[in-house]
Amino acid sequence: MAATLSRDVAEGIVRGALHGFDTSDRLAALPTDAPLRETLALDSLDFLTFVERLAAACDRRIEESDYRRLTTIATCVQFLTE
């Protein structure tokens, strides 16, 4: 990742990576502190797809050891803006 992302851009990336896991309206209304896996009923393959989308959108490798940090929209934004 060449430049640091703003929080707004990072949140847009996270919400975009969730596209298809629920309706657009429900994803737009999803609170930033809602646990993603439980709220969206993401199984391990869905979660991996989400992580791959994040990585591709940011041109950044996300290690498996970082997955535990990607629990909510807010924690994903925090991770992406570090």
Walk me through this protein's architecture.
The chain has 82 residues and is mostly helical. It has one domain (7-81): Orthogonal Bundle (Non-ribosomal Peptide Synthetase Peptidyl Carrier Protein, Chain A). It contains five helices and no strands. Helix 1 packs across helix 5. The protein starts with 6 loop residues before the first helix and ends with a helix. The relative contact order is 0.22. The mean pLDDT is 94.
Helix content: 40-55%
By CATH's scheme, which homologous superfamily applies?
A: ACP-like
Distance between the termini: 11 Å
CATH architecture: Orthogonal Bundle
3D shape:
globular
Major β-sheet, in short? none
CATH top level class name: Mainly Alpha
How confident is the prediction overall: mean pLDDT?
94
Radius of gyration: 12 Å
| Overall number of strands | 0
Question: Summed up, what is this model?
Answer:
It comes from Nocardia aurantiaca. This is Acyl carrier protein. With 82 residues, the protein is an all-alpha fold.
Helices and strands, with pairings:
Elements (H helix, E strand, L loop, with lengths): L6 H11 L6 H6 L6 H4 L4 H15 L14 H9 L1
List keywords for this structure.
single chain; 82 residues; mainly alpha; Non-ribosomal Peptide Synthetase Peptidyl Carrier Protein, Chain A; 0% strand; ACP-like_sf; Acyl carrier protein
